[in-house]
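Dear Dr. H.,

I hope your travels went smoothly. While you were away I took the liberty of generating a structure for the chain from your last submission, since the lab meeting agenda had it listed for discussion. I wanted you to have the full record in hand beforehand rather than looking at slides cold. The sequence, exactly as received, is reproduced here:
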Amino acid sequence: MGRNESRLGELLDSRDYCKLHILEHYIARIMGSGKAPGGFRVFPIGVVGNDETGKRIMGEMSAAGLDMQFMRSDPSFKTLFSVCFIYPDGSGGNFTSSNSAAGSLNADDLRSASRCMAAAGSRAVAICVPEVPLELRREFLELATHCGNYRACSFALGDIEEARNMGLIALTDLLALNQEEASALLGSGSGHLLNEELLTEYAATYTATHPALRLVVSFGSKGAYGFEGGRMQYSPAPVLQSRSTAGAGDALLAGVVCALAAGIPFIMPGDAGKTFEGRVLRTGLDFGVLISSFTVTSVHSIHPDTEMKNLLSFAEQQGASISESIRSACYESE
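The corresponding predicted structure, in token form, is as follows:
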């Protein structure tokens, strides 16, 4: 669109959510957050506005099983707002407010969760995603490091260079990026899109020289790659008629986190196969691609019917089978 251009668009009955909400909704639903005393718990840390949108979002998060004790409302700002656009082929993007309540997150908010993070230690996964300021994200990752938590991150395209310069990549155990974001990290910066072959070569080299880092790179409808210690696995996505790709990358990361928390291996480098049909899903990357693929069958960025039985049924409908390791982990989480 040009600077002075206006266009008409059809207003859709679609619900979009921020990255934190999408990720933690899926993790809470799949892992049964709050269903059993002493069981898996999901704690969002963030800020919404003291407005109707903020109240509705807080209610939805609580209903999904998230523990809301570290969330607060700020009457000085509006709840994070995005104008989302979707093209006829299902692709799209958004414009997100930079002066929302999310940006008022502060060090005291992080410190309020520190006792919980420290008590969980290596059993905790600390997830760090936009739209809060990078300085606060670094403070959160440093706190997670001090507490011995496993650290998972994603960054928007515009964050990549600054995040690398601030040392945030070095404070990350699991990094999830799309093709554009990974190209900015591994190539010549933003605006230079690497093709699949070159990007996977660079990613393998990067993780070989950063052995503590696991890297997930999404290639949209093609699926995703996982990299660890210079080794690689490709997990193809099923061929689908997408209704919306919004939230698919966040769902991918959520699935990988769930699998790792349940003891499923991240990748199996020798696991071959170019199509989803006929594939045995056995790794965290496979599970992430499964949830991501299921997500795009909904017009909403959080699929309202996400639960384990529906995911397993969806995989089988698309011609894949579920390994015994994933099935047993699912039963344990139930």
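Two observations you may find useful: The chain has a mean pLDDT of 90. The radius of gyration is 19 Å.

With kind regards,
E. W.
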